[in-house]
Amino acid sequence: MFIDMKRLTIKKISQQPLAAADIPAIMDAEQIPFELIDNANWAADYPYTPKASFRMGHHNDTIYLHYRVSEDSVRALAAQDNGHVWEDSCCEFFFQPTPDGPYYNVECNCAGTLLVGCGQGRESRALASEHVLRQIDRWTTLGRAPFEERKGRCEWQLALIIPTSTFFNHQIGTVSGQDYRANFYKCGDALEKPHFLSWNAIEIAKPDFHRPDYFGDLSFE
């Protein structure tokens, strides 16, 4: 089946956030709209669909990312970076700097715990070093402490400052004027109601976010 790949223009913002906590207000001022993460590609097996959206801006060598989520429970058990954050209430950004080349998975749970990897596919991914991970500033409305699953409707936000040095196997420098391929996800593999949502649709039989053939296009101003 032919999939119409989404294309999104990423605005170059005039005011650079000094901390991730500043991102929501600055993006409001820059009038950057949210994009929905609403493709329930495997609804027959995973019918629950939380509300999730993101918006993105940049300033040359830095990407700013803001997620907004409303779901029936939240969990943040992964206490250390590069742990099993995908089992928690998790938002993900997959980014491919060059066509058909390695891609990065930037995954973050609702307590700001990160996993960053790089590779050609799901297997044998190289994980980012502690030095790389420390450069990514994180902010979440739920705080930074790990916690067990909390059942009941919860609305939360997450913001990240992602320097291009995060993409540690590439020499990107500035993203200004460049086009890249990417996808955005919301998941919670071990929640009471597991779910697997994507920005750009994925037409395969079972949940798998490691599918760059289904990435959409990002055009950076």
Give a nutshell description of this structure.
This protein is mostly beta strands and 221 residues long.
Structure description:
- The chain has 221 residues and is mainly beta.
- 5% of the residues lie in helices and 42% in strands.
- The protein has two helices and 14 strands; from the N terminus they run E-H-E-E-E-E-E-E-E-E-H-E-E-E-E-E.
- It has helices at 23-29, 130-134, and strands spanning 7-12, 35-36, 39-40, 51-58, 62-76, 90-96, 103-109, 114-119, 126-127, 137-140, 147-163, 179-187, 196-198, 216-220.
- Strands 1, 2, 3, 4, 5, 6, 7, 8, 9, 10, 11, 12, 13 and 14 form a 14-stranded mixed beta sheet that branches.
- The longest helix is centred in the N-terminal third of the chain and has 7 residues, at 23-29.
- The protein starts with 6 loop residues before the first strand and ends with a strand.
